[in-house]
Design goal:
Elements lengths: L1 H24 L9 H27 L3 H25 L12 H12 L3 H29 L3 H28 L2
Helix pairs in contact: 1-2, 1-4, 1-5, 2-3, 2-4, 2-5, 3-6, 5-6
Length: 178
């Protein structure tokens, strides 16, 4: 459990702290997108497999209907968002593969696979709160700093869904702590 929370803290810290560093370092990006746009695409693309994998685990291992329902929402929402992003990117130059957070996400999924019961619930929900906070920051950064109008519009359309997911995760966390 401690490793799972450590991984979510790492993800939140990496996303909010290293975002400006990654963007400055990527100022000559070969994808045809600006540095903020490239970072946004790579990190958004990486989050989908994590959300789908952890959500599918929570659909079957979550001990309450609200957690299972939230997990189903995460799976379907992230597949839909990923499909929309993939369609948008078909008209853009290729972006580099997402690697920055892959190990942290893999560790989190691996930890969840070994858990059950209340420990699973607490770790899944706590991880969702941290993930959604970091994801909202990523989308807000794209809206404020991205150069590609299509990606900025995508981020603006998707951010309210992320904020809703965060509010739901916080509500689950509050219910679980009672």
């Amino acid at each position: 459990m401690k490793r799972y929370f450590a991984a979510t803290v790492i993800i939140l810290g990496i996303t909010t702290t290293l975002l400006p560093v990654a963007i400055r370092a990527g100022s000559t990006v070969s994808s045809g997108l600006g540095p903020a746009d490239t970072y946004f695409v790579t990190q958004t693309s990486l989050g989908t497999p994590f959300q789908v994998e952890s959500g599918r685990l929570a659909e079957t291992r979550g001990t309450s209907q609200p957690i299972q329902s939230y997990a189903q929402l995460m799976v379907s929402s992230h597949i839909t968002v990923n499909n929309a992003l993939t369609a948008l990117l078909k008209n853009k130059a290729p972006t580099p593969p997402a690697t920055l957070l892959k190990a942290a996400y893999s560790t989190m999924v691996s930890t969840l696979q070994r858990e059950s019961g209340q420990t699973f619930d607490a770790d899944y929900v706590g991880g969702q709160v941290n993930y959604q906070k970091a994801n909202a920051a990523l989308y807000e950064y794209e809206i404020a700093n991205g150069m590609d109008p299509d990606l900025k519009a995508f981020a603006q359309q998707t951010l309210p869904k992320i904020q809703d997911h965060l509010a739901r995760a916080l509500k689950l966390q509050s219910a679980e702590s009672k």
